[in-house]
Amino acid sequence: MEKKKRVLVYGYGNPGRQDDALGNEMVEKVQDWIEKHKLECMSTDSNYQLNIEDAEKISQWEIVVFVDASQEGIHEYKFSKLEPVEEKIEFTMHAVSPSYVLHLCNKLYSKQPEAYVLGIKGYDFELKEGLTDNAKLNLEQAYQFLTRQLAGWALIKKNLPISMLDGKY
C-alpha cells in the first residue's frame, strides 16, 4: 500500500530585492495549501539563503523541494531533480547551493532525501520590495504545478479538478 511522503518545501531569497522573494512567496502560498488540506506529512521553511546548517534540517524529510528565483533563460519555472555535489569550502562561505546542502546531509547524517529545485523566473532584483507583475504570473504557474506534485506525494485524490488527476493540465 502506498503511503504519504514526508515533504519539506524550502524557499529562499531576499524579500527586499523584488523578484528574489519568489521562493519566500511560494512558501507562504504552499503553507496555506498545506493547512487547508490538513497535511501533517508536509511542512515549509524559508530563509534569505541556504546555509550548511540546513543539511540537518533536510535530513528529517523524505522529499525536499528547494524554491528560488531564477535569472536563467527559462520560461515561467523549471523543476529539476537535484543531485548532491561537493563544493570547495571557503572560510567566509555564508551561502551554499541546494546540491551542496544535499551533499552535506548525506555526508554528515547518512541520509539523502529525494530533492528537487523549483526555479521561478524573476526579472528585477533591485533593492525594492514587491514582486514584478510578470514574476507574480510565474509564481502562480509554478504554484499550480507544485501543488499538483504535493497532492501526488500526499495521496490527495478528492476535491481536485479532474485535470489534476488525469495529468492533463
Record keyword descriptors for this entry.
Rossmann fold; 5 helices; 20% strand; 34% helix; alpha/beta; 169 residues; 5-stranded mixed beta sheet; disordered C terminus
Structure report:
This protein has helices spanning 22-36, 54-58, 98-109, 133-153, 162-165; strands at 7-12, 42-47, 63-70, 77-81, 114-121. With 169 residues, it is of the alpha/beta class. It has a single domain (7-165), classed as Rossmann fold, CATH 3.40.50.1450. A 5-stranded mixed sheet has the order 2-1-3-5-4, with helices on one face. Helix 1 (22-36) crosses helix 4. It is globular, with a radius of gyration of 16 Å. The chain starts with 6 loop residues before the first strand and ends with a helix. Mean pLDDT is 90; it is low at 161-169.
Distance between the termini: 27 Å
Count of helical stretches: 5
Gyration radius, to the nearest Å?
Answer: 16 Å
**Residue share in helices?**
25-40%
Q: What's a concise summary of this model?
A:
With 169 residues, the protein is α/β, with parallel strands linked by helices. It has helices at residues 22-36, 54-58, 98-109, 133-153, 162-165; strands at residues 7-12, 42-47, 63-70, 77-81, 114-121.
Could you give the topology of this structure?
Blueprint: E1 7-12, H1 22-36, E2 42-47, H2 54-58, E3 63-70, E4 77-81, H3 98-109, E5 114-121, H4 133-153, H5 162-165
Parallel strand pairs: 1-2, 1-3, 3-5
Antiparallel strand pairs: 4-5
Helix pairs in contact: 1-4
